TrEMBL record:
Record Pfam families: Response_reg (PF00072), Trans_reg_C (PF00486)
Protein name: Two-component system response regulator
Gene3D superfamilies: 3.40.50.2300, Winged helix-like DNA-binding domain superfamily/Winged helix DNA-binding domain
The organism of origin for this protein: Sulfurovum riftiae
Ranges of the DNA-binding region feature: 123-216
Residues modified as 4-aspartylphosphate: D52
Gene Ontology biological process terms, A to Z: regulation of DNA-templated transcription
Native organism taxonomy: Bacteria, Pseudomonadati, Campylobacterota, Epsilonproteobacteria, Campylobacterales
Amino acid sequence: MAHILVLEDDQLFNETLEDFLEEEGYAVETAMDPYSALEISYKHVFDLYLFDVNLPYENGFDLLEKLRQSGDTTPTIFLTSRNDKASLAEGFGKGADDYMKKPIDFDELILRIQAVLRRQIRQEHMTIGSYRLDTVAKTLYLDEEALEVTKKAIELLLLLVQAKGEVVSSDEIKNRLWAAGQNASEGALRVYVTQLKKYFPDNIVNVRSVGYRWVE
């Protein structure tokens, strides 16, 4: 389940986006201003940002610039009422992956979200030490031999690696690996950690009572 942060200062539209995206199967966090969004981005790992541009305190372009400067490469789509080419150029110049003008067509929004997420996955075929990870098939290989690692363990591996050394809380991991209504437990989480530690014994650190982090 992809995790999306929505930043929109219009409360009604914010709530509409949240409801719509959750109905489409995404996990959603929301913020009404850039400072709150920045704080949330430090606490959770997201697959996508949906940012308004005209916001209180500072605009969405400036927020994305801060995030990019901090090393945050999370794909970002701007949703904005600005319709001039200069704003379009500025948005992409700050590191946006896509740009939609309001009023938003929700069917088009889903297609754009899916396209951005697919591009993200294609860019994340990765080599981890001696291993090759196929992020599309969620399969881990050693010397072209597929290893017996469950899909959820692979999702956990991706989550930890993408956090770039930051601690990922147990609650965050459960939210990402299990859909709403599924039975997530510490015991099940430890099973997946144990699976991964078989291949990455020194890379996964248990931060007691908090969660886990990946170390190189």
